[in-house]
Amino acid sequence: MKAVALTRYLPIDDPEAFRDVDLPKPEPQGHDILVAVKAVSVNPVDTKIRAPKDKVEPTPRVLGWDASGVVAAVGPQVTLFRPGDEVFYAGDITRSGSNQEFQLVDERIVGRKPKTLTHAEAASLPLTAITAWEAFFHRLRIDRHGAHAGQSILIIGGAGGVGSIGIQLAKRAGLVVIATASRPETIAWVKDLGADHVVDHRRPMVDQVRGLGFSFVDHVAIFNDMRHWNDAVELIRPQGGIVTIDDTDKPMPMAGMKSKAASLHWEFMFARPMHRTPDMIEQHRLLDAVADEIDAGHLRATVTKILSPIDAANIREAHRLIESGRTIGKIVVEGF
Q1: 25 and 102 in contact (C-beta within 8 Å)?
Q2: What domains, with CATH codes, occur in the chain?
Q3: Ramachandran region, residue 213 (left: φ > 0; alpha: ψ -120 to 50; beta: rest)
Q4: What is this structure's pTM?
Q5: Residue 325 clears pLDDT 90, i.e. is over it
Q6: What is the residue-wise DSSP string for 209-244?
Q7: Among 200, 298, 306, 325, which is 20 to 30 Å from 128 by CA?
Q8: Is pLDDT above 90 for 113?
Q9: Average pLDDT over residues 141-163
């Protein structure tokens, strides 16, 4: 089968950063389904894992953690899907990725593809939707059905992949959304997604948020990096919560968190499949819920660029665009 893989970790402008290879077609066992991949999207996690380092893989390594496709075969313990079903998923970072014609993935972290979306549109959603959903509803314990309607949330990194779906989920839950964006095109994007207010993360955020009339916000989601930690601590209300998706070696002073009895939550959407947690099927359930919301017209896909076909050249280009730091929404690569 066709696949895009690496053996060395190289700068993205190196033509050997990714290679087109032929690999054996895998066979599903246990709870695995075999998916014929139709489209994939590229996320910052892909670029972080591919970042240059002094390491050589003994066999080609396939990256990619976002896909939409069709079930080709199922393992003997599979009960949720059957061949022919259309699915979407983010997968498991400890296993071979989605940049290949056929991929094995555990049924418990797979959802049904939204009926109203193409495979390219569906591939833009799983990783970011799981991340934002878990961040808001599992970590911060926001009620997605509106019990916390009227509370405020500051989403730092509003125009990125996670922020783009996060704005929609927060608005659907009834929150007042303050999103950060710094360029005219990203400001327009987050407003179109439903942000109530926009502040510029390239300028001091505390003054801007307080200028909107918020002394504090009920929740903060850091969906880019931790350089905004001090602003987040200053703005979170006493007994509020901050969730972040970024690991960091930057200082994270905690005195302000302690004095407010505020909570810090880490969101890592691969934690459930990586550790085979007893509740890993929650990702199947939440992806099905996202599909329902999409098909009902309450959420929309966030793809902004589609490349074709799925080959080394286009995967390199997608990584290059992500590394530019100027992407809006999601980049998808479709079709082998």
Answers
A1: yes
A2: 2-125+274-334 (3.90.180.10), 129-266 (3.40.50.720)
A3: left
A4: 0.96
A5: no
A6: HHHTT-SSEEEEEE-S-GGGHHHHHHHEEEEEEEEE
A7: 200
A8: yes
A9: 97
